[in-house]
Amino acid sequence: MLDARVLEDVWRRESAHVLAALLRRHGDLADCEDAAQEAALAASVQWERDGLPQNPRAWLIRVASRRLVDTVRSGRAREEREATHTDRMDMPANADGDARRTDADDTLRLLVLCCHPALSRASQVALTLRSVAGLSASQIAAAYLVPERTMAQRLSRARATLRAAGARFELPPPAEAASRLAAALDVCHLMFNEGYVRSSGEHLLDADLAGEAIRLTRQLHRAVPEHDEVTGALALMLLTHARAPARTTPTGDLVPLAEQDRRTWDATQIAEGVRLLEEVLPRGHVGRFQLQAAIAAVHAESPTWEETDWAQISVLYAMLDAVAPSPAVTLNRAVAVGMAVGPAEGLALVDDLLTDPAMQRHHRTHAVRAHLLESAGELAGAHAAYQRAAALTASLPEQRYLNRRAARLPRS
User: Fold this and answer.
1) How crowded is residue 2: how many other Cβ atoms within 10 Å of its Cβ?
2) What pLDDT score was predicted for residue 321?
């Protein structure tokens, strides 16, 4: 009997390449995904009975191609296309040495297709998880805590939008290439952030989602190894994810960076992240992902919290604020400035954000303010800010942590 986990791992590894093989010949994402899913269902039955084939990718492509031919044949308007492609589609694409050469290209094309400018960013992320990462609609729905039906409808609308826009499985023209690649990189980064710190729910970390984001970014890096920001993003994810083993207690409670056991950080990921960063920084222009990776590297190479070079981190955040200003950057900079210079200077940065109604409603604004107030000795104000932050977050581990911090301080 074939373990279900084996089937899931094969599908996660091969689904993008199966889909890419179909898209090269047919072009419609919805039809190709349906055919690929039918092949996956067939595999779950036949492989359970006969065992894993010698070349799972070739098997899946062959079966999916036949399903797609049947779909094409059933539509009169597609008869000419079906006649043109039937013979070629019955051949297993990417089943030999060509696979190594085309895997990265497949990933790049699929990412670019899923990040088409006609789609909203939320739809780009969902479609990337579905088509490139091979996650099911139920898995994506669980990651974003929405009903499976809602996610299925979002995916269906995204496919329809691509069809209406005439999107094709091909790299965009040069005029669009930079923006499309930037969108793909943003999607990978959003996936990683959601996996590394879940925005809501019972768990702080979704290791599978964060790991999938790293895998996709690594594929993207293989496709465009000279792209500085792709390299920077991969370094950032590796350096950040290296802390994952120390970020929660055995019961799932959040452990802040200051209290983490750095001996449990993943030294292999840190070494790779630092190596990538050292390769890319001397090239010239330094973008936001490279700067964030540089900040993560300072943390990763600090033996203890007390030995962290906060002055260097403050300078890097100032550079990041100039390159890619955002409220999140300001909050992180406030922490660094508070550690390097003093809490009053950090609080001044946070107070500027509180003029923005959206940031007034964001739990992290109040969490950072509470930390800085506590450092300044304003314990009653810190207590109130921790409570406010806890009330605003939908993440239960963060909520428990913030309430614990508040409970340690006097109310007045």
Assistant:
1) 16
2) 94
CA 251 distance to own-chain centroid? 25
pLDDT digits (tens, 9 = 90+) for 205-234: 888 888 888 988 998 898 888 899 999 999
Distance CA 286, CA 233 (A): 12
CA-CA-CA-CA torsion sign (213, 214, 217, 223):
negative
Give me the amino acid identity at 244. Answer: A
Dihedral Cα 383, 386, 390, 393, nearest 10 deg: 160
Alpha carbon distance 239, 272 (integer Å): 8
CA torsion, ordered 105, 108, 109, 110, to nearest 10 deg = 120
pTM score:
0.77
Instruction: Compute the CA torsion angle 334, 340, 345, 348 (nearest 10 deg).
Output: 0
Report the sign of the C-alpha dihedral through residues 55, 104, 30, 233, in that order: positive
Regions of the chain where pLDDT drops below 50: 76-101
DSSP type of residue 200: E
